[in-house]
Input
Amino acid sequence: MSKLFRTRKKKIYCLDDQLFFEAMKENCLFHYKNNAEYKKILDNFRFDPNSLESYDDLAKIPFLPTLYFKHHNLLSLPKHRYLIKATSSGTSGKNVSLVGFTLGDLLRGFDMVKSVFSYHKLWSLRPHRYIVFGYEPHKGNDKAIAKTAYGFTLVTPAISKDYAIRWTKDGYKVDLDNLEKKFIKYSKGRTPVRTLGFPAYTYFLLQQMKDKGIRLKMPKGSIISLGGGWKSFYKEKVDKQAFYDLVYEVLGIDDKHVFEFFGAVEHPILYTDCRNHHFHIPNYARVIIRDIETLEPVKPGQVGLINLLTPMMVGTPLLSVMTDDLGILHEEECPCGEKSMYLEILGRSGLDDIKTCAAGAEELLKGEKS
Output
């Protein structure tokens, strides 16, 4: 498995199907032997990992819906083997997905992030200011999105860090007005600014600034990066070009300096959009689009539920996870030059009883606006 995650940065979108198959079979066998609950699931589907003979067989691995992880503790190793346990949850603490990371999991993740960030030229020795449209770190917050945001602030030296969701004596509170003041202040300096976080929050603040007639020119080298998806704010979602136009109008940052990330606590793979804003499939993962009714794989270009595959995790069996998102796999050539297919995420399928960290953040924002 480790060999797969040491893919060189120039090769991360050159898919090695045989290497991926071998890593997936190894991972499936490991969890089958070490996780009694996962073994029971596969046995119920009459699936034997030893039956995997080729890359095409990977679609036969029984997938687990993300909802399953929100109701079941599915760790494969003793507690002392885990260095980090991350959750995906709303502010209520309900519907929590618990994912345990071993040292090996973290090292594979680091190799992946190092290569992906190098490929997309996101590492920098130049100091930056960070504006995070997410949670301020707090000892009681073990949400994966908060850990990811913290890690992102280590990509360059950080002079300052400001957060949209701030910790107060009364718990987390949304404070977009403070970030508006920070943008205005930082636009007058020379230190570049990097943002990260929920696109909905970013959009709401930029729209608020536009309505006030605020037009800024952020320092050269500033980057807008987005992660977490629109989720429960799908009704407010705008198309990508309208979003990029708003960023340029308010902050003076063009779309070449806007990056979007995709991932999940149940699928901790870093997808980063190309210069044409497409999520190409990296060598560390594969995506199967499945028919909404039959759950059978569909052809590229057809809409269905997104099934995500990766052999990254030893601590938790995340090798085949079914999301509640609808998407399309595109096989047509992308102008960026990469050959791997790219994933278009259309939005949520509308399934009930599924909450995410973004959904929890929505409740905070509603409280702020009321």
Remarks:
- The first strand starts at residue 64 and ends at 65.
